[in-house]
Design brief:
This protein is mainly alpha-helical. It has 2 domains: 5-179, no CATH class; 196-233, no CATH class. It has helices at residues 5-19, 21-27, 41-59, 68-89, 98-110, 120-132, 134-143, 149-179, 213-223; strands spanning 196-199, 208-209, 231-233. Helix 1 (5-19) packs across helix 2, helix 1 runs antiparallel to helix 3 (41-59) and helix 5 (98-110) packs antiparallel against helix 7. It starts with a helix and ends with a strand.
Length: 234
């Protein structure tokens, strides 16, 4: 095992988690659960500097001394860094992709409740912090790319609505955390599938039928191309 490679790989992951806190949550690194990514100019410059430094350090590593697995790890990490450098300078990431901001905000909260990695109250507290950071997060999205006035107005309205709702949602999470008990609520009984609607053709009277999905297909196939037949409407 190369003595220089493992410390370099550790620095790679430290930078990855620090600049991508939502990704860190999904990976299982929970030291950044209360944060959203920072796409301000200063933070993006710091990220670009980190990636350039890591690539420069990687170029000095002696590949001949690495194990086969380490060589693969090195190539994957270097490829990721180069792709991220391109994305930061393109119009397809923080400069011009609104879904990046909404996706980080939404999945930043969802990711906290997919597994019971910590007590519910602790995860709810992290969710409240991320919801509270949503408004400045969206403000940076609006400032990073010029857009038509109509879209600016729509974004502004959505941002105000999110801001007014965030306090209410945060309070609900806090109340849920304080009320949560160890018992689970019983599952709701399954809801019966609605009956299929039948439309008569010709002189036949209307009828109602409750087929299974496979039965539906059989009836539809049997009725196609037959005059005066009954066609089941999904």
């Amino acid at each position: 095992m190369n003595g220089d490679f493992q410390p370099w790989l550790a620095r790679f992951f430290e930078s990855y988690y620090r600049h991508r806190p939502v990704n860190a949550t999904f990976v299982g690194e929970h030291g950044f659960d209360h944060l959203l990514p920072d796409f301000s100019a200063a933070s993006v410059a710091a990220l670009a500097s980190d990636m350039a430094r890591l690539l420069e350090e990687a170029a000095t590593l002696d590949t001949a001394t690495l194990s086969p697995v380490e060589r693969i790890d090195k190539r994957l990490a270097e490829g990721f860094l180069r792709i991220q450098q391109w994305e930061l300078g393109s119009q397809h990431f923080q400069r011009g992709n609104p879904s990046l901001y909404t996706g980080e905000a939404i999945f930043g909260v969802i990711g906290l409740f997919l597994t019971d990695f910590a007590p519910f109250a602790e995860r709810a507290e992290a969710a409240v912090a991320r919801i509270g950071a949503t408004s400045p997060h969206q403000a940076r999205a609006n400032s990073n790319r010029p857009m038509p006035t109509s879209r600016k107005l729509a974004r502004s309205s959505a941002s105000r609505a999110a801001s007014s709702n965030s306090g209410r949602h945060s309070a609900r999470l806090v109340r849920a955390a304080s009320r949560r008990s160890g018992s689970r609520r019983s599952a709701s009984p399954p809801v019966a599938a609605p009956s299929a609607r039948c439309r008569p053709q010709g002189s036949r009277a209307s009828a109602m039928h409750r087929p299974t999905p496979s039965h539906t297909g059989q009836w539809r196939g049997a009725s196609e191309g037959r005059s005066g037949g009954v066609v089941l409407m999904p």
